[in-house]
Amino acid sequence: MMNATPADGLASLIQNSERLLALRAKLPTAGLLQTPTPRDFTDFVAVAACFLIFNLLVIRFTAPAPDVLRRIDYAMRQFSMLCFTILARWGWMTLAVYYSPWAAIAAWPLAIFETWSVQFNADVYEGRAMKGVTWRHASKCLVVLVMEGFGVFAGFPLVVKLLGWRQMSSGAPTGAMLLHGAAGMTLAYDLGLDFAFYLFHRACHENRLLYRWIHKEHHTDTGKAFGPLVAFETYTITWSEASFIMVGYVLGLALAGIVAAVFGSDVTLFHLALLLSWGHLVELLGHSTMSWTINGNPLRLLHETLGIELKEVPDHTMHHIKPLSNYGKRTVVWDKLFGTYTAPPAALYDARCVSADGKPKAP
């Protein structure tokens, strides 16, 4: 056999590339890759700046005077980290869908950073010792890799197909759509996801077998490593639990997509990145043991206006004290509708309301 020349190698590369392109043309996502433009990032930065300024103004005029600067500092750090995770998640999703599925591995280190940043900001705000990342906690973030991989490769395409929307693209929505539709999308997403989670969560507590097989680990393995509940323990869940939560994500995404359509936007990977990043933030805050639930965030503006927002720390800590109550993790709608809501006492707004072994305690 003759030795291959550089020209032969180039010809083979071109031939294989043509085959790959022909195969890719048959995929549902063919022709929909939209390379982000400077305008996309300009719109994102402009809208993010408007959201942050609005949030800071709300804090300025609603926070107790001695706590204004501390809350503004927290809001600025948390908001910047949220923007980073949205863009990073959008990036790996685009690479995974259009170039290589292996790019989805980036979901794991991103989840570790995301979880650490929420806990770090909470610790800075509360003035307590920083909690480092342990391998045990980092390994629990693997569930995020699986859940987001399912969302990108199965859940998202399924929603797009079932509801007859244009096939998913990677492009970012316009600044106008973000400005007008983001709050509605997050509300719809939270209601859908929370409804599915409420049903599952309640069933796990009211059925002894389900509790023992699926949910017990979360209640017995939290509040051990560092004392109070910590953000990393959000992902102390079984794979069965994670599987059902993914169903809730699909339902929430479907409702959010309807809102996007109302505002004239296609359903894109950017929406998925935005909603998943928002979803994780709310979940993580529930275990961060902060004495203040941030208010005035435009992504939660409708929740607060309607009076259905979940005070993550006191409301969810109340669930860890009284397990047969407060099953929701994103709103109080379903708990109040079905009579399972228990208002937390004022003392639970103190993040240090824990017993010696770190478990939440009744005041």
Give me some keywords for this one:
mainly alpha; 13 helices; 363 residues
Give a verbal description of the structure.
It is a single chain. The chain has helices at residues 6-24, 38-62, 68-98, 107-126, 135-140, 142-162, 175-206, 208-220, 239-262, 269-285, 301-306, 312-321, 333-337. Helix 7 packs across helix 8. The longest helix has 32 residues, at 175-206. With 363 residues, the protein is an all-alpha fold. The protein is 63% helix and 0% strand. It starts with 5 loop residues before the first helix and ends in a 26-residue tail after the last helix. Residues 16-33, 223-227 and 350-363 have low confidence and may be disordered. InterPro entries: Fatty_acid_hydroxylase (IPR006694), Sterol_Desaturase_Related (IPR050307). GO terms for molecular function: iron ion binding; oxidoreductase activity. Its main location: membrane. Residues 188-340 form the Fatty acid hydroxylase domain.
